[in-house]
Please model this.
Amino acid sequence: MENNLLSIDDIDFEFENTPVKIVAIRSHPEVKVAGQTIGPLEEGRELQVRYWIARELVRSGIARFHDEEQMDLIGLHKLYWRETVQTGRQLSPLPNNFYPKLRRLINELKEKSASDPVKAQEYDKVLRLAQDIVSCRLKKIINLAVGPAQTDNVLGSLSPEEKLVYSYVYDFASKWRAKILKFEGVPK
Model:
């Protein structure tokens, strides 16, 4: 397995700097963010900025995330269904940046749930679905990792975070198996 795997923190950092689409929900003059000039913004106009900039523009009520950039309860239900229908070791491909988006959705709903009972219910549902999806995929990844080395085709359906788990488990299981099956030096 590759030695150049990123940590979850590295993956999150990359996600924060990934270009995403937003839509201006009101016109606004130029905005300076960390030395970058954004705008002027026209209501309804799409633009692409780094995620961390988009998040701040959304929080300030200037823009909203483009629909394709969002993760929601319905999308999680579809993914859960797809994942549980897959048999054995089959993993369905995840949307790009699935885990960073999932973490942000969970955190956003958790913040809003304190003051909004509807968001509290949605938070509970999202959290349960997320836990089920992660558990289901983790079982499959561990099954793949304790078996023979997998092809790039099989590993291609793993997210970067999942490749990290696969790598750790595969390396550990391979070393453990080699030690267990090593017969040299066994007392007679």
Observations:
- The chain has a mean pLDDT of 90.
- The beta strands are 19-24, 31-33, 36-38, 46-50, 63-65.
